[in-house]
Design brief:
Blueprint (H helix, E strand, L loop, with lengths): L9 H6 L5 H16 L4 E5 L5 H15 L8 E6 L2 H15 L9 E3 L4 H10 L2 E5 H9 L1 H7 L4 E6 L2 H4 L4 H8 L9 E6 L4 H10 L4 E5 L1 H7 L10 H13 L5 E5 L3 H13 L3 E5 L5 H13 L4 E5 L14 E4 L6 H7 L1
Parallel strand pairs: 1-6, 1-7, 2-4, 2-5, 3-4, 5-6, 8-10, 8-11, 9-10
């Protein structure tokens, strides 16, 4: 994924490993929404690999690349709990140490917030837990010097947990920050829930919702081929793949149940073992069909719909064919 169009600070690009195809796939999605399209963003993600780096990066990009409005030149990364904030802070410190011109990040944790606030006064990047931020706000003298309205970019991680906190606590804590329409905001949730979504819409100004599954990063690292084919040529293309002898167990994706059923029947009529899975089957039955497909002694084509694939974890087919173009962009990554 080429993200050179964002003019990333060279030292930051090296430190964040921006040339790595897995990471750059996420950098591209986040930066394009936040800065190219000038949107606030609500991210739903199952990402575990390089997660902290992926979500720290946009804040550091903002700090190193943009002319900031007067008095709004700092970034805040907010987590629900101390453990997450500590891990984020350590990751940010390791990354920032490789980028000249960026000061060491400050980390505000619950019980230690008062003793650590001095660091935050000189830092352009502050990582805080909810309890750490509350403790800093509770002390008027600290609250004043911390200058919470200087944070022009705020990331709220663990949104599904923050959203469970009492509404009055949220109002008191976030009321000291800039209003949502005066700052850039990124909200991140590991688990989608109505409360997390409502929090995102209250905390950010009209955020765009995007899904960043780990499959996005994996998809860009896998070899792919694209062919333009007429409808009648598609099945011959798949049969040709089987005839080459290099691919014996293939899964093929269709958009509709009726298309999947018809295509599976056509493979059978052409002498190729086949079955299909649509969304109306239970997970156990799906697993049985997948096991049959993968252990079949002769070439086998399993035809799937996007709903049908739900609940099937990493079945291990050697080749995937998008017989139909996915109805939604996210479906492409989910298929892979």
């Amino acid at each position: 994924m080429d993200i050179s169009r964002f003019s990333i600070d060279p030292a930051l690009a090296v430190a964040a490993d921006a040339d790595d195809s897995f990471k750059s796939a996420f950098y591209d999605k986040i930066l394009s929404s936040l800065f190219e399209n000038d949107e606030n963003v609500y991210v739903k993600t199952d990402l575990s690999r390089d997660r902290n780096l992926v979500f720290i990066f946009p804040a550091l990009y903002w700090l190193t690349s943009r002319a900031k409005p007067t008095g709004k030149s700092r970034a805040l990364y907010l987590c629900d709990d101390d453990d997450a904030a500590k891990a984020l802070g350590q990751a940010a410190e390791a990354l920032i140490s490789k980028v000249p011109g960026l000061s060491k990040p400050a980390i505000l944790l619950g019980a230690e917030a008062s003793s650590l606030v001095a660091q935050a006064l000189d830092s352009a990047f502050v990582v805080a837990s909810m309890d750490g931020l509350k403790a800093a706000i509770a002390d008027e003298s600290i609250r004043t010097v911390l200058s919470l309205r200087s944070f022009g970019f705020v990331i709220a991680d663990q949104a599904e947990k923050i959203a469970e906190r009492p509404g009055e606590e949220q109002r008191k804590t976030f009321g000291y920050l800039l209003p949502s329409w005066e700052r850039k905001t990124l909200v991140v949730a590991a688990k989608a829930s109505p409360k997390a979504k409502n929090f995102a819409w209250d905390f950010a100004d009209n955020p765009k919702e995007i899904k960043l599954g780990e499959s996005i990063g994996k998809a860009v690292t896998m070899p792919t081929l694209s062919f333009q084919a007429q409808e009648g040529e598609k099945i011959r293309f798949v049969l040709k793949l089987l005839a080459e002898g290099k691919r014996t167990h293939i899964c093929v994706f269709c958009n509709l149940k009726s298309s999947a059923a018809e295509l599976s029947m056509r493979f059978t009529m052409n002498g190729v073992a086949s079955d299909y899975i649509a969304g109306n089957l239970n997970v156990e039955r799906k697993k049985q069909i997948v096991a049959k497909a993968l252990t079949h002694p002769s070439p086998f084509v399993l035809v799937l719909t996007d709903d049908g694939a739900k609940g099937i974890e990493k079945p291990g087919f050697s080749t995937l064919v998008n017989y139909d173009i996915p109805l939604e962009p996210e479906f492409y990554f989910d298929r892979i």
